[in-house]
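Objective 1.3, modelling of assemblies. Example input:
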Amino acid sequence: MTYTVSPIGIIHSPYQEKFGIPRQPALAPSAPVSLRLLPPYDHADCVRGLEAFSHVWLHFLFHETLARGWQPLVRPPRLGGNTRVGVFASRATHRPNGIGLSLVALQSIDTSAGVTLHLSGADLLDGTPVLDIKPYIPFVEAKPEARSGFVDGPPPQLDVVWQADALAQLQAWQQAPAWFARLVDEVLAQDPRPAYQDDPARRYGMRLADCNIVFNIAGAVVTVLEITPITQN
Ligand code: SAH
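Predicted structure (tokens):
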């Protein structure tokens, strides 16, 4: 049996590449993310009443990694990257059907030209196709007493330090969005490195919004070394 689904909207987000995206939503609340609905769903009627909900579930496609298929066993970063669990015991991106699920905060809905949902804290790549939106209903879905296996709390956070050069580059960047520096702090504090890697001399590069960021990580400290805005013509 084969069923066909097609997106109801597309995500616009500061995350231009997979590297650096927090591993779950809410870990980087400063990320301004929007969801633009596609025709024929871009009608105000389709979202009537949704503004009364503070959070929504998004079902989406891991479109960037779909082609790589899936494996029955995966190595979650939370287990250090060398212990395996079943794909269905994980939130891994490589899964049958490649469907992701994120609970995100709904800030506002703009129906002035089509429909755009303004969200915060989403863990989604720019261009992600969204399959469905559902309001979050805490009395049914919030289960604070639930057991959660190997994910027993938020991940440890690193300290983020900006080198003087990087701070100067930030100050010189006139078009820097107001949320940019906060988002850099939140994203880097999550430790974006793949499990295993621990080389304090290694310089990492990451594209976030319209900026390239260079940093390194030694112990529990991330140092922002350079930020280079990408000039757009
Ligand atoms: N909250 C979701 C996603 C968890 S995996 C769920 O539980 O299903 C989170 C990772 O998904 C991020 O680190 C990011 O690298 C990856 N990701 C986000 N959008 C993606 C996309 N469109 N295609 C492939 N991977 C994506």
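The pocket of S-adenosyl-L-homocysteine is lined by residues 18, 21, 23-25, 62-65, 91, 93, 100-102, 123-125, 128 (CB under 6 Å).
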